[in-house]
Design brief:
The protein is mostly helical and about 350 residues long. The chain has a domain at about 1-40 and about 265-340. The chain is built from 13 helices and no strands.
Length: about 350
């Protein structure tokens, strides 16, 4: 599942780059990339749902100190290292004058670079996991489901209001809070198995949600009295109700999918080993891919005057970014003193 989510993250960021940084976007290219970007919004939420399914449902009674020390070390070292790398990148490639205060402000906001907020989210969720796990074990199934729905609804409303009214309430210490609902959802969704006939319905809901996310800005502008809906990215936030529905559908589709079952039941040891290696590299791919993405896209659009058709350029660039990122991460993983830098 981490492999699927990693692919979706790279496609999401690649389509966003092309969407916002390419000035020569035709209507067809813009529409396709907008739809593609919307259809991949489930990527980060599914990472969180999967983490909740693993850690909140674990029967392993691990001491709190050991649990936190192990997990925080795994994400803490990469956070510090990659924050420094991206600060260097910001001050050199983007020509922003060096300022320790500027860097510290970005870090305390929880965004040393736009994607690194995810590590702050994971750290926050790890810290509350022991208490959350103990609390959930004392609730009935009905109350657990009620709690999941309640938290998802409250966080969705809070985040949408904050985004619409431009309220600055999220920072490094609170970034994880809107994602608690997804984390809890993982606990509730882990043991849900869907019949093959029902998967089609889940797919239909997923596709409908993606279309709504892609076009709801335009749809909202059609409502009488609303001439210019504020906050274009309001509709792309991870706690948007449509994104929540799509993310849950994506988790169910992947966890109940035929391909996933085939991978799990795979008897060929080499294929199994290859998938395990790729899965272990997903965190590193997440960390490094924005660097690879920006250099790859800039090189591509500066050196090729006639870009590929709208339906091909983002998939092609995403594939390149994934392959190059994996190669870098794989080499780092093989170095004894460097492997902790990619988790």
């Amino acid at each position: 599942m981490r492999i699927y989510a990693s692919i979706a993250v790279v496609i999401l960021h690649t389509s966003a780059w092309v969407l916002y940084f390419q000035q020569k976007n035709s209507w067809e290219r813009w529409s396709f990339n907008s739809l593609l970007s919307s259809a991949c919004r489930w990527s980060v939420p599914v990472f969180i749902i999967l983490s909740g399914a693993i850690f909140l449902s674990s029967a392993k009674n691990e001491p709190v100190k050991k649990f936190l020390a192990t997990r925080l070390k795994r994400v803490g070292i990469p956070l510090v290292f990659w924050s420094i790398i991206y600060f260097i990148y910001i001050h050199t490639a983007k020509h922003i004058p060096f300022s320790l205060k500027y860097d510290l402000t970005l870090f305390l906001k929880g965004q040393p670079y736009y994607h690194l907020y995810f590590i702050f989210v994971i750290i926050g969720l790890y810290i509350i996991t022991p208490a959350l796990k103990s609390f959930l074990n004392n609730l009935s199934d009905k109350k657990q489901k009620y709690l999941v729905i309640l938290v998802l609804c409250i966080t969705s409303l809070a985040v949408m209001v904050n985004k619409y009214f431009n309220l600055k309430t999220i920072n490094a210490f609170t970034f994880f809070i809107p994602f608690i609902g997804y984390y809890l959802a993982g606990f509730s969704l882990k043991n849900i198995h869907i019949r093959k006939s029902a998967i089609i319905l889940v797919w239909m809901v997923f596709i409908s949600a993606a279309i709504i996310i892609s076009f709801e800005y335009e749809l909202l502008s059609l409502i009488p009295g609303i001439r210019n809906p504020r906050g274009f990215d309001l509709f792309y936030v991870y706690c948007n109700p449509a994104v929540i529905i799509m993310s849950i559908c994506a988790y169910l589709i992947i966890s109940n999918g035929c391909l996933t079952r085939r991978i799990i039941k795979q008897e060929n040891l080499q294929i199994k080993r290859a998938f395990r290696t790729i899965a272990r590299a997903t965190f590193g791919i997440y960390l490094i891919h924005p660097l690879i993405l920006e250099y790859t896209c800039v090189f591509y659009y500066q050196n090729f005057q006639a870009p590929l058709p709208p339906l091909l350029d983002v998939p092609f660039l995403s594939f390149l970014v994934l392959i190059i990122s994996f190669i870098f991460v794989f080499l780092i993983m093989k170095a004894p003193y460097l492997k902790n830098l990619v988790g």
